[in-house]
User: Fold this.
Amino acid sequence: MSSDFSLFERHVDALYRSALRLTRKPEDAEDLVQETYLRAYRYRNRFKPGTNEKAWLFTIMTNVFRNRLRQRPAPTEPLDQPGTDFSIYDQLRREGMPVHLMSPEEIIVERGFGDEVKHALEELPLPMRMVVVLVDVEDFSYKEVASILGIKIGTVMSRLHRGRQALQKKLWEYSGRPRARPVAVGAN
Amino acid sequence: MGDHCEQAMRKLSVYIDRELSDAEVRRVKAHLDDCPPCEKVFDFQAEMKRLVRKECCTDDAPARLRDWVRQLATENPPARDREV
Ligand SMILES: [Zn+2]
Assistant:
């Protein structure tokens, strides 16, 4: 069976970077990935050859992670609040930036939105963060994410929608910090 | 914003996530070709998605973790180097 397990090895980077977004700490991420692989190894005969091994590993990892959270809940975890509609694009347009004349890349570079993506993502409430990571970073389909997390596809979509808006809101706040423009209170 | 714009906007996420049927994709594309303002919004959101992926893909697993995983496949699985 040892040759079969090599199928799983190749996902170590994907598991690690996602573990990092979930735990926020390199040592916790490493530990989470180890635990995930130990379980995968122990239960490797339950994996159906030909099915998606990456999704299988992520199912294990999110289960391990959620079990750990239950054992030692993080008191600082933000609540999963309903967000209001927010889009960086609309904000910039409202500010009078000629967004229609710029490429998306130009807009992102111009305001430095790329620099703090990881930080912003790690500040999202966990339910949204997990979905954004699985869809946007790991490229899982909605159906796969629903299966990995044991939630409905509609829930995947609404968390994704709110998660992306919350992410853009954070990035917007960060980008405004260093070069704060004088904005009238109550404007917008 | 017209009805067509609103319909297209409702499909924004599913479109950039490639979760639409071919027929629906064609319908959205037809609108975007006709409507530069909507196209700009779609392009920007798609770029934000790429940005998240790009920024988060820079963290590779540490070499020792990679080695540890590789050893798991051998006959004698290594003990975990860290206890919880
Ligand atoms: Zn339109």
